[in-house]
């Protein structure tokens, strides 16, 4: 059957919508927890296409949940040895990170005198513990994106991480439309309580959301469909390795 210009446009829009995703499930040592059980519901949790965040200067850069403030997530007690992951739900059959993307995982420690449910993550409190950057293929000159195709973003906690309650934040930054409409952020925040044994490190550098990104970083402006002229620079602060 012939598919004209209007048909092709419709198919393109459907494919684009189906590529959006959320992170409603925290995994611990390979086991799924409940949907939105330990992860705060995001503004797009019941939207028909899981629309992303593009306003990197808004308070939604923290946990993307300003429209669902009454949802109360539980707090998972984790061991410093645990392997954690955010599981992808997408509007495509494979439930994976469809776009050419890079990923980061941040943490923010909840003040001792604050209930974790009341902590929004404001101020310079966030530090990066994990990243999946882009790699330059020396043969083709094109950037390769290891985040693309992942069904979960998996990581471990830094061994020197102090005990306490934390917001655990994943972000996937999609770069396929940077020249047209800018980067797209896909965000999720889980609530965890870290103990056994916990460390005595000093996490940093600390950044705020909004504020961690200016929008002018080379890694947010790169044209992914053209050969790269230099190695990719991951946006955001340096990693805190936190390993004694």
TrEMBL record:
EC numbers on record: 1.14.99.56
Membrane spanning stretches: none
UniProt keyword Signal present: yes
Listed GO MF terms: metal ion binding; monooxygenase activity
Domain Auxiliary Activity family 9 catalytic: 20-229
Cleaved signal peptide residues: 1-19
Gene Ontology biological process terms in this record: cellulose catabolic process
Listed CDD domains: LPMO_AA9
Cellular component GO terms, alphabetical: extracellular region
Family annotation (Pfam families): AA9
Cofactor dependency: Cu(2+)
Catalyzed reactions per annotation: [(1->4)-beta-D-glucosyl]n+m + reduced acceptor + O2 = 4-dehydro-beta-D-glucosyl-[(1->4)-beta-D-glucosyl]n-1 + [(1->4)-beta-D-glucosyl]m + acceptor + H2O
InterPro entries given in the database record: AA9, AA9_LPMO
Places the protein is found: Secreted
Keyword annotations of the record: Carbohydrate metabolism, Cellulose degradation, Copper, Disulfide bond, Metal-binding, Monooxygenase, Oxidoreductase, Polysaccharide degradation, Secreted, Signal
Secreted found in the keyword field: yes
Xref: PANTHER family: ENDO-BETA-1,4-GLUCANASE D (PTHR33353:SF10), PUTATIVE (AFU_ORTHOLOGUE AFUA_1G12560)-RELATED (PTHR33353)
Family stated for the protein in its record: Belongs to the polysaccharide monooxygenase AA9 family.
Protein name: lytic cellulose monooxygenase (C4-dehydrogenating)
Gene source species: Coprinopsis marcescibilis (Agaric fungus)
UniProt lineage: Eukaryota, Fungi, Dikarya, Basidiomycota, Agaricomycotina
